[in-house]
């Protein structure tokens, strides 16, 4: 079992900051440490010193490293209850709108984006919705746009779908191939994918719904609070802010700015 001291963590993150300008100070130390240990194991390295030598000897290792650090655990219809509630909200409040704008912040490989695409298709909202899907992992964004998922992942996706809806067949939305499934790209017709770093880049505004699920777990409380303020500014009045089931940050959300409208589904509304 590899152990990394606080000093080693500090010297690695400082070296990365100096050499590549990437700042890890906002990352939650325990989860960063876990991910670095995973990288060491994967590369069969035994210390932070060896990892740094690997950085120096391997061109472009920084992008491999960043992708490993931010690798997204995600699935379609993750937390089915949220999508049931979201469908009810879209049906009750968004069908009558002329148009609305959604942001998937930290969209990873796109499963959340296709999930909303299916809701949009089921409710025939395609002509009203536009969406922005962003992440700072370029490879994940490319996968999101390709919409090809391994059949093992599709087992989990289908299980979640069945918990969300039993009346329509999940298979309507993809073409199964030998080892993969190709999602219907018409589901993301309304989506623009863009590179965006939530820590360093500015936020667009005018959104009616922002999903930022299971992303802020990487950040410390100060970064989370700053980010929540920026999401607040990005939302239209009455707009929804949706966080992940394991984003333990409800206490950081100011109840003068956001109303908790669905505790179970973790849906907040800008007041
Ligand atoms: C666990 S995935 C979440 C995917 C999806 N939102 C969900 O809940 O299923 C977390 C994503 O956050 C992204 N991420 C982490 N830090 C980020 C940052 N500073 N800016 C943008 N994206 C970031 C990662 O690249 C990763 O794709």
Structural features, described:
The chain has 271 residues and is α/β, with parallel strands linked by helices. The protein is built from nine helices and ten strands. The strands form two sheets. Strands 6-2-1-7-8-10-9 form a seven-stranded mixed β-sheet. Strands 3-5-4 form a three-stranded antiparallel β-sheet. The chain is globular, with a radius of gyration of 20 Å. It starts with 5 loop residues before the first helix and ends with a strand. Residues 70, 72-74, 78, 106-108, 111-112, 135-137, 140, 196-199, 213-215, 218, 244 line the site of S-adenosylmethionine.
Properties at a glance:
271 residues; alpha/beta; Chemotaxis Receptor Methyltransferase Cher, domain 1; Rossmann fold; 2 domains; 7-stranded mixed β-sheet; 3-stranded antiparallel β-sheet; 42% helix; globular; binds S-adenosylmethionine
What's the arrangement of secondary structure elements?
Layout: H1 6-20, H2 29-43, H3 48-57, H4 61-69, H5 80-94, E1 100-105, H6 111-122, E2 129-135, H7 138-146, E3 148-150, H8 151-164, E4 174-176, E5 180-183, E6 191-195, E7 207-212, H9 221-234, E8 235-243, E9 258-262, E10 267-270
Parallel strand pairs: 1-2, 1-7, 2-6, 7-8
Antiparallel strand pairs: 3-5, 4-5, 8-10, 9-10
Helix pairs in contact: 5-8
Residues 70, 72-74, 78, 106-108, 111-112, 135-137, 140, 196-199, 213-215, 218, 244 line the site of S-adenosylmethionine (SAM).
């Amino acid at each position: 079992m590899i152990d990394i001291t606080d000093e080693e963590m500090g010297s690695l993150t400082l070296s990365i900051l100096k050499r590549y300008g990437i700042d890890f100070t906002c990352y939650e130390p325990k989860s960063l440490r876990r991910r670095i240990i995973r990288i060491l194991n994967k590369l069969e390295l035994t210390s932070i010193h060896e990892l740094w030598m690997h950085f120096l000897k391997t061109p472009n290792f920084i992008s491999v490293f960043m992708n490993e650090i931010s690798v997204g655990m995600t699935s379609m219809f993750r937390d089915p209850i949220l999508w049931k509630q979201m469908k009810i909200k879209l049906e009750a409040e968004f069908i009558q709108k002329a148009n609305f704008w959604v942001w998937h912040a930290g969209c990873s490989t796109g499963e959340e984006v296709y999930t909303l695409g299916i809701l949009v298709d089921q409710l025939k909202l395609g002509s009203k919705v536009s969406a922005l899907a962003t992440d700072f992992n370029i490879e994940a964004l490319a996968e999101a746009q390709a919409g090809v998922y391994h059949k093992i992942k599709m087992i989990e996706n289908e299980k979640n779908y069945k918990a969300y809806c039993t009346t329509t067949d999940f298979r309507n939305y993809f073409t199964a191939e030998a080892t993969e499934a190709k999602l219907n790209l018409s589901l993301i017709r309304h989506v623009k994918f863009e590179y965006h770093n939530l820590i360093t880049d500015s936020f667009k505004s005018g959104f009616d719904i922002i999903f930022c699920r299971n992303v802020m777990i990487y950040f410390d409380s100060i970064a989370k609070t700053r980010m929540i303020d920026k999401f607040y500014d990005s939302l239209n009045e009455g707009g929804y802010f949706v966080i992940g089931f394991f984003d333990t940050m409800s206490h950081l959300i100011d109840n003068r700015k956001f109303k908790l409208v669905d505790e179970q589904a973790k849906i907040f509304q800008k007041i």
